[in-house]
User: What shape does this take?
Amino acid sequence: MVSLTTPVCDFNADAIDFNLPGVDGQNWTLEKAKGKNGLLVMFICNHCPYVKAIHERLVEDTRILRDEYGINSIAIMSNDPALKEEDSFENMKKVSEQWNFPFPYVIDESQAVAKAFGAICTPDFFGYNGELKLQYRGRLDESRKETAPEGVRRDLLEAMKQVAETGQGPLEQIPSMGCSIKWKE
Assistant: This one.
């Protein structure tokens, strides 16, 4: 398992369109997924300890962003399930149900969407404003392979609240850290 960090936010980069099947039986596009004040695109998977450490906060924070700030979220799984059985579509359904994800969980089988976004690890967060211009590319909080203690700053939540209110993300962003995306050969 290779641990990587995300690059700096490329402010105002356009969101990449996609059309991916979700565990809910629907196909999801950029237009269908976005909220009135923005969209949080998250590259996650089932096996990664960095993702497992943030499940509870991820669910809580994305629910707050949706219900109070008009920012929807979508989670994309781009790993090759042949390399990590835990990342299979069936297991995606189980994880989504277990954690009651308040967002679509979709699979990027061809890995073309992850490549187009420039995603490199799980979790990798791309926070867009209402015009679908990139404003955040940072971490959820200071969790790593273990959940950070209660009371830590919720970087992603605070940044996306700012995006909802002003259309712009914070200039200072701490990169997300996680497992490398498992690319097909």
Remarks:
- The chain has one domain: 3-180.
- The chain has a mean pLDDT of 96.
- Residues 55-69 form the longest helix (15 residues).
- DSSP finds six helices and ten strands in the chain.
